[in-house]
Predict the structure.
Amino acid sequence: MTRGDLTDDEWALVQRYLPLGERGPIPDLRRQFNAVMWNFRVGGPWRDLPAEYGSWSTVYDRFRSWAVAGVLQNLMEAMIGEAAARGQADLDLVSVDSTTARAHHHAAGMALDPVLLQELEKAAEEERVCPVNGSGTNPVVTECAGWQGDLGVPRKS
């Protein structure tokens, strides 16, 4: 057992929520589960899975079948329920990844002052007409009508 692998008590909690194989029990199920947990913890490519966990492709295939079948979601919900029943879960501490948070459909647009909107549209049109030379962090805007220097700042009239 390596650092981060499940203890016998932890495995006893987890094992009952994992499905059997198509032909009966999977002999190295614990090792495969520990391998999936290793990948969650480390966040590395599957091909970098340590050899002690077995073939990376076998572990990945097991992970994909669990993910598609909803096994990992059910396991997470069951573990939260178990911890809450024992008084070991603080459900006040919740983190939401902003990349998956959905906004109300009214939040999709932004109200702009009509004058500001007109200026932004004009600037966008001028940018299409006046290409930026160079690339990277310091592009150079060539002298174009309404623009000055390399900053791309509108001229004051």
In short: The two ends are 73 Å apart (CA to CA). The chain is about 45% helix and 5% strand.
